[in-house]
Amino acid sequence: MTGFTLELTEDQRTLQKWLHEFSVNVIRPAASEWDEREETPWPVIQEAAKAGIYSLDFFASTWGDETGISLPITMEELFWGDAGIGLSIVGTTLGLAGILANGTPDQLAEWAPQCFGTPDDPRLCALAVSEPNAGSDVSSMKTTAVYDEAKDEWVLNGVKTWITNGGIADVHVIVAAVDPELKARGQASFVVGPEFKGKGLAQGQKFKKHGIRASHTSEVILDDLRIPGSALLGGKEKLDGRLAKARERMESAQRGHHVKTEREKGGQAAMATFEASRPSVGAQAVGIARAAYEYSLEYAKTREQFGRPIITNQGIAFTLADMKTRLDASRLLVWRAAWMGRNSVPFSSGEGSMSKLYAGETAVWVTEQAIQILGGNGYTREYPVERWHRDAKIYTIFEGTSEIQRLIISRAISGIQIP
Ligand SMILES: Cc1cc2nc3c(=O)[nH]c(=O)nc-3n(C[C@H](O)[C@H](O)[C@H](O)COP(=O)(O)OP(=O)(O)OC[C@H]3O[C@@H](n4cnc5c(N)ncnc54)[C@H](O)[C@@H]3O)c2cc1C
User: Fold this and answer.
1) Where are the alpha helices (DSSP H) in 117-193?
2) Which run of H or of E encompasses 201?
3) Angstrom distance (rounded) from CA 92 to CA 220
4) 348 C-beta closer than 6 A to ligand 1
5) 3-class SS at 232?
């Protein structure tokens, strides 16, 4: 048995160094331009694809690391470069994770390569869950999927919103209600290829955003979208079995027989899937926070007022000490949750949520302190810290808001279904 260590392996250090160099040489120099343009940075994605970063092989091998740490290392280094570009590079993995979690091995083999395209012609994938009236409360989703048995087709109708890569992706993974009465248990995931763009699937409004502006976010409109039966991830038999069980549970609850749900039993299969992706999102926030901390530390050592560097004021030095402490604490929470997720250690206290919650709020706080340390310069677009602050804010909102993370943690630690 090996002892406890937080030391990175040689492979992990090599990965970190390689991605850091890509961030320094390719992502950072492009960051301001694509933030201003508010467009998907296709040339940068292509460079990432040519370097072997934007590829199925790369993400498969990163996921393969049994310590779980390679994925947060990857996120931290790319997002240290720039969060909007970083999300343009890793946004595809959101949809891919949806295929991995719900699809059959054959569906994964068919669709995963299409999510990335080729280095000469990279493609994107999107995961469409959120709707105008179903953000935190995904169970109230209105998008429907109706099975047309005669044609073995599914017909999807509804509006998805705030979708990363929505409409510009080649592959859309769409979550829809098959049996709305069953709420979250009556939902299923579908994979939609590029041939349906303009034929039932269309991009709606593209949003202009506060931050991560290089990342494309838009509505996806589903208007009588007819897709083959094979588009249902996991297949019809599995879905029918799942729906039957959910109906049985609902009927028995209506009769007053309370059957303990997986969630109440602490199993939380679906929750565990979401929880597992949260450390990666937390790691992205760590990358932004680290960028701002490093930048403001250097600035504080060189900027002089009253005849001495501003860092010689305790007010500045102690702020930097707190920034570094919170940054490192965030990374440790992220690594712990990533290791637990990869090794199937149950998140008995909502550790996945803890990592995303703390890292997200730390990134907002650290980047705000960085602006303060840079003073007037920090407030202008001549310096990157204001962009990092704008970028950081999304980390208290998407992939479950801070409040929703606190809800998950408080339920987990109390065993009480806090509403
Ligand atoms: C840039 C961006 C990219 C996104 N990418 C995707 C994507 O690719 N795919 C996708 O499906 N979605 C995506 N989203 C959607 C995102 O996941 C949702 O915005 C998020 O889940 C919050 O939902 P909402 O915006 O409807 O907020 P609401 O749910 O309306 O919440 C509003 C406020 O109320 C609080 N609140 C709600 N319920 C509770 C409660 N029970 N207790 C306490 N407070 C509560 C929230 O915390 C929040 O502060 C993206 C969003 C953005 C902005």
Assistant:
1) none
2) strand 201-206
3) 16
4) no
5) strand
What's the N-to-C CA distance of the chain in angstroms?
Answer: 43
Q: Which residue type sits at 221?
A: I
CA distance 378 to 390: 12
The Cα–Cα gap between 300 and 309 comes to 6
How far, in Å, is the centroid of ligand 1 from the Cα of 400? Answer: 6
pLDDT at 252: 87
What sign results for the dihedral spanned by CA atoms 377, 382, 384, 390? Answer: positive
Alpha carbons 49 and 27: distance in angstroms, whole number: 13
CB within 8 Å of 29: residues ≥ 6 apart: none
What is the maximum span of the chain, computed from C-alpha positions, in angstroms? 82
Closest CA to 31 of 364, 395, 385, 297: 385
Neighbours of 118 (CB within 10 A): 10
- Per-residue tokens: 98: 């949806």
What's the pTM?
0.96
Q: 135 near 201, Cβ under 8 Å?
A: no
- CA angle in degrees (0–180, nearest 5) for 276-282-285: 160
Measured in angstroms, how far is the CA atom of residue 394 from the centroid of ligand 1? 10
Report residue 151 as tokens. 């044609």
Give the torsion sign (CA, 402, 65, 122, 176).
negative
Residue 304's CB is within 10 A of a number of other CB atoms, namely 11
Q: Is 399 a catalytic residue?
A: yes
Q: How far apart are CA 213 and CA 145, in angstroms?
A: 32
Q: What is the DSSP string of 33-96?
A: HHHHHTS--HHHHHHHHHTTSSSHHHHHHHHH-TTS-HHHHHHHHHHHH-HHHHHHHHTHHHHH
Ligand 1 mutation pick, 35, 92, 353, 398, max ligand atoms within 8 A of CB: 398
Catalytic residue (choose from 131, 219, 351, 399): 399
pLDDT under 50 in the chain at which residues? 262-269
E-assigned strand segments in 229-358 = 304-305, 308-309
138 within ligand 1 shell (Cβ under 6 A): no
